[in-house]
Known about the structure:
The structure is a homodimer.
Chain A: E1 5-12, E2 18-23, H1 28-34, E3 53-58, E4 61-63, H2 71-76, E5 78-80, E6 84-86, E7 90-94, H3 113-128, E8 137-143, H4 155-167, E9 171-174, H5 176-186, E10 195-203, E11 208-216, E12 224-230, E13 234-241, E14 247-254, H6 264-271, H7 276-300, E15 307-314, H8 316-323, E16 345-346, H9 347-350, E17 359-362, H10 372-381, E18 390-395, E19 399-404, E20 409-414, E21 435-441, E22 448-452, E23 462-463, H11 465-477, E24 494-496, E25 502-507, E26 518-521, H12 522-545, E27 555-559, H13 568-573, E28 585-589, H14 591-601, H15 603-615, E29 616-619, H16 627-634
Parallel strand pairs in A: 1-7, 9-11, 12-15, 15-17, 18-27, 20-29, 21-23, 27-28
Antiparallel strand pairs in A: 1-2, 3-5, 3-7, 4-6, 8-10, 10-11, 12-13, 13-14, 16-17, 18-19, 19-20, 21-22, 24-25, 25-26
Amino acid sequence: MGKSEYTINFKVEGGDPVSVTGLSNETALDIAKRAGVVIDAPCGGNGTCGKCRIKLVSGEVSGGKTPHITDVDTAEGWRLACGIKPASDIELFLPASAQAFQSRIRVTDFSGAREAAAFGSFRAALKELGFDGDHGLEKVNVELTAPSLEDALADRERVEAELAGKTGASRVKFSLNALRRLPLSLRSGAADSFGVTCVTRREGDDGGITVLDVLPASKDCPLYGLAIDIGTTTISMLLVNLETGDPVTAASGGNAQIRYGADVINRIIESTKPGGLERLRNAVINECLAPLIRRLCLGAGIGTEQIYRAAIAGNTTMTHLVMGVPGEFIRLEPYIPAFFKTDALGAGSLGLPLNPEAQVLLAPSVGSYVGGDITAGVFSSMIYDKDTMSLFIDLGTNGELVFGGKEFLMSCACSAGPAFEGGEISCGMRATNGAVEACSIDKDTMEPKLSVIGEAGEKPAGLCGSGLIDIIGELFQCGIINAKGKFNVAGKRIVKDEYGGQAYIVAFAADSASGKDIVLSEVDIDNFIRAKGAIFSAIRTMLAIVDMPQEAIDDVYVAGGIGSGIDIKHAILIGMFPNLPLEKFHYIGNTSLSGAYGMLVSERAAGQVAACAGAMTYLELSSHPSYMDEFVAACFLPHTDASLFAAQ
Amino acid sequence: MGKSEYTINFKVEGGDPVSVTGLSNETALDIAKRAGVVIDAPCGGNGTCGKCRIKLVSGEVSGGKTPHITDVDTAEGWRLACGIKPASDIELFLPASAQAFQSRIRVTDFSGAREAAAFGSFRAALKELGFDGDHGLEKVNVELTAPSLEDALADRERVEAELAGKTGASRVKFSLNALRRLPLSLRSGAADSFGVTCVTRREGDDGGITVLDVLPASKDCPLYGLAIDIGTTTISMLLVNLETGDPVTAASGGNAQIRYGADVINRIIESTKPGGLERLRNAVINECLAPLIRRLCLGAGIGTEQIYRAAIAGNTTMTHLVMGVPGEFIRLEPYIPAFFKTDALGAGSLGLPLNPEAQVLLAPSVGSYVGGDITAGVFSSMIYDKDTMSLFIDLGTNGELVFGGKEFLMSCACSAGPAFEGGEISCGMRATNGAVEACSIDKDTMEPKLSVIGEAGEKPAGLCGSGLIDIIGELFQCGIINAKGKFNVAGKRIVKDEYGGQAYIVAFAADSASGKDIVLSEVDIDNFIRAKGAIFSAIRTMLAIVDMPQEAIDDVYVAGGIGSGIDIKHAILIGMFPNLPLEKFHYIGNTSLSGAYGMLVSERAAGQVAACAGAMTYLELSSHPSYMDEFVAACFLPHTDASLFAAQ
């Protein structure tokens, strides 16, 4: 069959309509990607997640049959964008929910009380350890004798001589940016003055400096830095006054790469297609980082060129993609990244809108699935420096764990999958407005009491990770579901679902934002149990390797944006976290971002992050013989070995 | 008066027509510049050079009166593009002559016999001095054990360890480019091989190296370098195999900045207008260097990314403009450049299509009018190392002179003006096809015998610098003009010119390419005498300062593209060069380019160029009291003091 060309009109809820030509052998999702129309497709378009629901308004399509769309929905025009191809000119309606990641995502940016406290303790610890202000940047004022016919030294050489004398530098280099600004900056002051403020960076250990920028002598202009956490789902950044170390303002947003899949595997697959690597790099640099940086600077009333240093923490795949380095061997046995560490990179070569001479540091990785977000996190948690045994858990799009202390550090990643972010859950969603983030259930009436993200009176639209933990924990505690996650009892909220199992109605259609029931089915619960089982069995496997009981864990540090809403009690109740006294658990916020902050303000801290990476061994769980048994045993509520969760 | 908008159609001889909107307050030259239509305007559009002759085919214009256009010409439609503004829709015809710089310009690229000989001796001298191959670049093959689940080191760390062992490097950095290419290069060979060829550069003195590139191990790929001479008028470059030091191929072309003026002053003025600096940078980078580099590489059958190092020599203004550094204070008292020297720059930050990690060296300047072309030239001439006294003369768009040897080096620039390139000469032109480049005149018949650049039988179109020297020398020697440059005798070739003076018909209309008489008027001769007087008086002033007679000059080294065609005998005869035995004169070709070649192949040579710059004092002629007297005295044929040119 040949290809036919049709006109595809996208009507985007809350956005401008887009018209584009599409081929009869392209899916609506592919056409949308090509046209820059954002449709959330966590599974990357393979039909499994059911999130790319759009409405066919007019025209003919081929395909469309999927268990994710009921007959009623089909009649209303609902289709999955990944499952249909045009068979005529068509018009498609994109509801706001199909573009979910673009909406305001609640991330940990140190503005919440718990996060602010964690960050405050971290800063105090940094200062105590002397990781403070040794970022190598300095502002130096030089006042010069104005040139004359008798003293016709060039501007650069005139400044160089004065600067070398004043700083004792063994060597003074000038960046291209500094040379470009030098002649006018020198002559911008009063007629009788001939001076300039140099922004310098120490280079190497032999006392050399490089002049990054030259500013008019009269201008008071603090040096700024930027700490960046590039997550698979969300991106957070912190603008920092490098002279005081104080955070100035924070910003966050969704990672636009999500249109190529929710997890790193789908991103890597997309990156291997023709032009794919550049598309993914472009998505994170030009659609996310650049606009966020510009917005941040606009808000702070500074120019982007005032940012002279940046530190990025991200998982191994994210750091590959942001640099445009092929990461395809990360997902192929034996799972080899192109690099663990990087040398300082130029902002210009990365394409980031900072001062063109700014250096960008990247937190080093330890393995294909334990990246810079974790090494930065381990630094931030300070567990590397403790005589006691700590367990560090970062719950993002994936789950990474580090166990140990001063003596050893063992790290691993478990494919918890997207359930904590609402993926593979029929009414799952990310922690955005409308998400149920907490819940208690009355044992007698089975009526839930919901806490919904958003304005007061916000109607529930779906269930996010922390809400799922609460609901499943409460259903289990109330005896509404059994240890296998199956419903035990009947009631007006217990209904049959379309797959023949049962489901719990969290919110009735009349009370929900979508006008449909928000349900949690046995299939959903099963998916979630697998996710929590992956975390718990990883902990068990690590303990087994060092032959330690779970009581040996002195502290559990829970990190990650997804972790902030977690109710520890419920998480223990369902067997996700080990049954330890609650006081052993510490929520320490977005440690990827706080670790990046440490690297930003201190070269020695950056060195310590590298040392942490060097000290961490990487455990490939999938190749460990007992892991699969542990995983199967953990896929119960709370566990097949109930003694592990007996009341203490 | 308000502005009106008109449609301007340019009919370009030998090119595509261009249609653009023009305003009633814009000159045709400005409109052409904006539309990217090239019109040669050596004076920058101020009406003095008369070179931007175009033909008004239809429509009405305002302005147009100029002594450069005769009434007959006016009737034929000829106008100066800088002198007319549209008063209706207009159509303009651009003859090839108006785009002269675009045509093939004869430059010194070491292909001519004299140039090749000079370059050969220079290379031999470099080798003898050990300035050979120490460019710091190396290719290193590494063969590795392929990774496995048990040995999951990342690619970079695996190569790093092997490379450090093999080279003994104290520190191994990887460029972004190298990381981007690493994973696929490592896996491009046979299934059982896991290796790569690293292109490394030594960094600093402490044994560190940076990996610039990684190539598949099997690929035989020499390292290339590029030497570049950026002249005000022409640009030349030499592609060099860095492993052998052999030049591979050369290319040259006009400097497209010429549309903003023939001399550096007009370029600087243009650079201070809004967007002007970027326009000038763009003209030299994107219109000249980038296409020349691509053409050169295409011809050599290599990719531009195989060029790992470049060295540029150019005058002070050219180096400012190519880097995008404001040069406006070069032309304002006290004439201060932004820099003399630069640190090695990245090809990427300069916007040159080389390997993105290639370093670009620039020859350092000594003063606002003695630039890197001269320091590279002094290095190339090797006069800095001689016990004898040498005079180095570089005749390009300007004239620069260096006098001295091992003990001292004194440099100066004289505003010889554009006469050597045909500027300010009514039938003057650059040394392109059709230019009279040599001439002898029969004393009895006054008939000239012309040598014309181009194919056999090429008709004369105008007079270039070397032709002017010959014609004026012959006219003087034959007694046709007197010491003041005025005509002494009558004859069929001596006619009255339009300014009331007399002129010599070099070629009758019937024999000329333009179908018009090619004449040399007393005004032209006067302009030329000023130019040669500027050179000679500069030599005299330098000698006076060190209190030496001209006989103290042991050798005269004549450099520069314009110098290649000069007949030394005639140049002495007219009092341009000092009256020394002919064997003291050495033509040494384009030393700006050969000096850049030296910097390219040897770090120590680059260091020596910097040392030459440091050793050179800069003499500002205009501020020297005796210079003006010397200049006035030199504005005769050969000189007011005829004893200076008495037969030896």
